[in-house]
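To whoever picks this up:

The nightly regression suite flagged TetR family transcriptional regulator as changed. Nothing in the input moved, so I suspect the structure step. Input below, exactly as stored in the fixture:
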Amino acid sequence: MDKIATQSPRQKRDPEETRKRILKAAKKEFAQLGLAGARVDTIADRAKANKRMIYHYFGNKEDLFQAVIEEAYLDIRAAERKLKLELLEPVEAIKALVRFSWDYYLKNPEFLALVNSENLHRARHLKKAQTIIEVHGRFIGMVEEILQRGVGQGVFRPDVDPVQLVITIAGISYYYQTNRYTGSIIFQRDLMSDEAREERLNFNIDTILRLLRP
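Regenerated output under the current build:
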């Protein structure tokens, strides 16, 4: 009887914890196999849940994929907010943003895989994610404010579109990392060695700052 009493609290169902486990398992499955290749049975096994629970929390596989995509974008935006870029001097803020993008992609390859997958589906899930659009809009607004401060200090030129800047910062890290295997063959160098990664990060920072200078 004592044993039962001891185990009981641990066995209580925690809906939020179950939902998190399902999302984590689904993220891995979708990143590896995409929406079409992912299997709900595998996700359930990974999450130590059952299919009924998945359908209860998310509706169907399509809705689960949308939840995973939304969480992926919310996660990167939340991580960026922790940088507190608005408190940094403009040049240092841009350096931090470039470095963050590089490091985040490096540490979260699943994010890149999910973005690739969503592009294959022409962003049909992201179109329905109004929260993501609003959060990203605030991020662009913050970058614009950094640029304006830089213009005021005479360190940035005044004609830079913040959206184009964000696309460029993402692109120079995204391309390098998503093409690291083919690039290592084509360019005959190990693009993912410690030395190569550090060289590329410095190149990225220098490239963006040159683009912004008056």
